[in-house]
Batch of 2 targets.
Target 1
Amino acid sequence: MNNIQPDSSLIDQLNRPWVERKGFSHWGMALLWLVLMFLTSQVVVAIVAVAVLFITGEVSTAEELLAAMETRLDVLFIGNSAGQILCFGLATFLVVGLHSGAESKLRFLRMGWNDKVPGFMFYAVLLTLFIQPSVMFLGYFNSLLPVPDFIAEMQQNQYRMFEEFLRTDGVLLFGLLHIALVPAFAEEILFRGYILRAFEKSGGIIMAIIFSSLVFALFHLQLTNLLPLATLGAMMAVLTWLSGSIWPAVVAHFVNNGAAVVMGTYMPDTAFADMTPDALPPIWMLALSIVLTVIMIKVIYHNSNYQLKS
């Protein structure tokens, strides 16, 4: 009997990700997916919001629907959560198979769990709190950059609606769910799970951290908040890389957004104050923020996997 040995080159070819077998780049496929998810999620938001309004009997005509879509921010939040769960979370988990090859989807997305993850989650909370004064100063510098008037006006209207919503009684838990918890899971799967990993496979981790953070900031369509968003994106990307898990970034994302919801609910005058030098923390707090942020990143690095240190 002849012993037929499998062709090792064929096995290696089959184990390669579909993206590579078809000659596509990981980062190009990721950007294409990001655009598709942005458009698809907006469609889901609209469908869910309209369905909720009609099913609950709050609208019955097109005119009432248009008026409600401009004022019912709670319904838009429900639609947004549905879009993030279905598109950013579930759909992204499926498309990862095109990039992972023989590697499992969970491993590709860094969704694994080990004994070190809870410690990194604790570090993530401290890092998120320490970096806030620095983020506030970046927000002020960002406000000095020229932005087209129509974009500035659009974002001011968004902030005004957001402020009015959080000033409403009894919205804290609703806000924490739809503004903090859902985005923390769904956006981290998309950005620090999928986008960061795809960019890393194409150009290495430094390029991946930089570009995934910029994409994360631009994705939110807030030019007047671009620098703070990119900084927070970079922080969560570094957390994910050093810990080998997206869960610390999920916690950091929830803490950051949740703190904004709590402040907007209980201290709206402070949370939504105009970005002026008088509204900024003192310089000594900025210096302390930078020092503590650097120290915390070093602590996280020294507790990371030995492969990252070598």
Note: The chain is about 80% helix and 0% strand.
Target 2
Amino acid sequence: MIRIHPLFLVVLMGIAVTGNLAVYSFIILSLVWHEIGHLLAARYVNVKVKRCIIMPYGGEITVEHEGTVEPYKWLIIALGGPLATVLGMLLTLLLPPLVGQPLFNIQRILLLLNLLPIWPLDGGKILCNGLLVLWPKAKVYETFLSLSVCFLTIIVVVTLLMLPRSASLAVLSLFLWSKVIGEWRIRKYRSAFQKVVMNRLT
């Protein structure tokens, strides 16, 4: 059920080549733990997960009948990962400092990155679906996606201007930008599904 995206393998190989095998292991452990949080949350709201892919910024899950899942369920699923990471950070306090401290720091960085309020990060999905729960209008999704495209475009331009110092950040931001552009291209179809769901809720 859990798979690793090829780009994430390339990133990890780069870390391994530098000799940071402990970092390599901690990142994989942290991301898998994070995704288990999403999977447990999906199970809690009775949403069947088809697959889970570990990405360079976190992970993505694909569920059955994705377009008909209510926003409050998506909100709970999106919250599952960050909550698992917070729990993981607390658990590192019980470990010896030599292991616990670097594991805590890695999870903290992943959490802060993943909570940025842009699609497709968890922070973006939490904010977008939270807005849909409070204000069930299909236009919310499309507007939020457009804002994410604009914000990520700015980040991509800035990181490219700062090369070569920002190489890893540039690769990550380009990857996120490509994901949100792909989502933006099919926004009309998703909005149509959202309207069906919204009409059921209002």
Note: The longest helix spans residues 21-44.
